[in-house]
Amino acid sequence: MKFSKFGQKFTQPTGISQLMDDLGDALKSDQPVNMLGGGNPARIEAVNELFLQTYQALGNDGSFREDINSTATSSMANYSNPQGDAAFIDALVGFFNRHYDWNLTSENIALTNGSQNAFFYLFNLFGGAFTDEQNESVDKSILLPLTPEYIGYSDVHVEGQHFTAVLPHIDEVTHDGEAGFFKYRVDFEALENLPALKEGRIGAICCSRPTNPTGNVLTDEEMAHLAEIAKRYDVPLIIDNAYGMPFPNIIYSNVTLNWDDNTILCFSLSKIGLPGVRTGIIVAAPEVIAAVSAMNAVVNLSPTRFGASIATPLVENDAIKDLSDNEIKPFYQQQAKTAVTLLKKELADYPLVIHKPEGAIFLWLWFKDLPITTLELYDILKEKGTLIVPSQYFFPGVDISDYKHAHECIRMSIAADEQTLIDGIAVIGEVVRKLYDEAK
Ligand SMILES: Cc1ncc(COP(=O)(O)O)c(C=O)c1O
Question: Are 312 and 331 part of one and the same domain?
Fold first, then answer.
């Protein structure tokens, strides 16, 4: 069968599709696997319990059935309009205005089928072919101000040069008073000197905060600087808040979240523990919301209402925030602590440095001068039943052939149970120690 160019773009094998298959196969395997690879959120008892109660209440309140004696419409038996479930959008407007001074109306919010779906829309709205004021065609890309960045951004574009990306400054820092950590910072000098930015070939700026894969949290100063550059060049600043505040609030550094009408904030219900309901939330200027709604109409008719129905009461009574502050955030903070302690023990006298854990559900490990690439390390660890993700996939828009650092790091998830962390880190320790020892 012959596929169009569009079809070929999505079906060609990529390194990452191979990797995702490996992760999926591992989950199905009957051999024990130390799964430190995927992006699945953890199972947290208190969280599951609350969701279960909410599902059960939904079953009883008419959400699934149209009541012929009532004028109220059931959410599951009807499509919403393409912008998304109106009751959830109203609840979100109230929630954000209660906790932040944003003055939102329902025209500022649209729902998508997961935030991955939102990035497909946004990157194709702001990246690709444009017609400039001279009626000439110009290809614009999305500027990633700090790579490493989220693997899922790669390949969502339908056309055009996908990304222009900037490599980070790497600072040695302490964490909880201990040495052996580093933190990435935006290289603003390199960013401001990018020809694509100066020549009008950037359509939007985008960053995840906290960042998948590194757990970095861009500081308030960095965010203010990015917002200023975005305004100066008249492009939107897209902030991927999948792990950020106020939900799931997996963020440990002391920072604030801002929004204005040049900012596009993307939220998700996935990392509070509901990745299966596929619900993303976009907060943006009405013009962007209207565009997203129009795309929803064509691609999905209307976005799914299941996640919206579960989350509406939790947003109305702030339970989503309490859950995030009191269960989800402390859980991951403890997991990060446990994993750091285990890693430091396993590799005490070896050149491991860890990105300062500031949020998200991962640790980012840098094995300085490792004798092999971390893609090769990935294969050895896989043979031994431990899955991680090698760093090379997290540099969309950068030629990393001569950038050693991009081949020396791994991302490990901290969402697994404690025994899996212990076993997986023991395997990483054994393999990495041997590699360094043999190279002496
Ligand atoms: C940084 C980041 N953004 C977006 C997503 C997409 O999440 P979803 O489509 O489940 O909302 C993920 C998922 O892992 C992520 O890590």
Answer: no
Exposed e or buried b per residue across 214-246, where buried means at least 16 C-beta atoms within 10 angstroms of its C-beta: bbbbbbeebbebbbebbeeeebbbbbbbbbbbb
Give a yes or no: residue 413 inside a domain.
yes
Quote the ligand 1 centre to 113 CA distance (angstroms).
11
Q: Does residue 209 sit in the same domain as residue 306?
A: yes
Position in ligand 1 atom list of the atom nearest CA 279: 11
* Same domain, residue pair 193 and 119: yes
Model pLDDT, residue 301: 96
Please state the rounded mean pLDDT for residues 86-94.
97
pLDDT the model gives residue 72: 58
430, 344: one domain: yes
Which protein residue has the closest C-alpha to ligand 1 atom 13?
39
Residue nearest to atom 2 of ligand 1 (CA): 242
Question: How many domains, the chain?
Answer: 2
| pLDDT tens digits along 340-393 | 999 999 999 999 999 999 999 999 999 999 999 999 999 999 999 999 999 999
**Distance separating alpha carbons of residues 57 and 52, to the nearest angstrom:** 9
Q: What is the pTM of this model?
A: 0.96
Residues in the ligand 1 pocket, defined by CB under 6 Å: 39, 114-116, 150, 152, 208, 212, 240, 242, 268, 270, 275, 280
Residues 246 and 372 in one domain: no
Ligand 1 center to 246 CA (angstroms): 16
Ligand 1 atom nearest to CA at 116: 9
Ligand 1: residue of 150, 218, 265 to mutate (most ligand atoms within 8 A of CB) is 150
Same domain, 254 and 337: no
Give dist(CA 270, CA 279) in Å, integer: 7
pLDDT tens-digit profile of 291-309? 999 999 999 999 999 999 9
**What's the rounded Cα separation, in Å, for the pair 49 and 35?**
24
Question: What's residue 70's pLDDT?
Answer: 59
Ligand 1 atom with least separation from CA of 39: 14
**170 and 290 co-located in one domain:** yes
pLDDT reported for residue 99: 97
Of all protein residues, the one whose alpha carbon is nearest to atom 16 of ligand 1 is 212
Say yes or no: 212 and 267 in one domain: yes
Per-residue pLDDT band for 23 (boundaries 50, 70, 90) equals: confident
Picking from 118, 175, 103, 183, the residue whose alpha carbon sits closest to that of residue 152 is 118
Task: Write out the two tokens for 56.
Answer: 């059960």
Distance CA(285)–CA(102), nearest Å, equals 11
pLDDT band at 73 (very low <50, low <70, confident <90, very high): low
Which ligand 1 atom is nearest residue 150's CA? 1
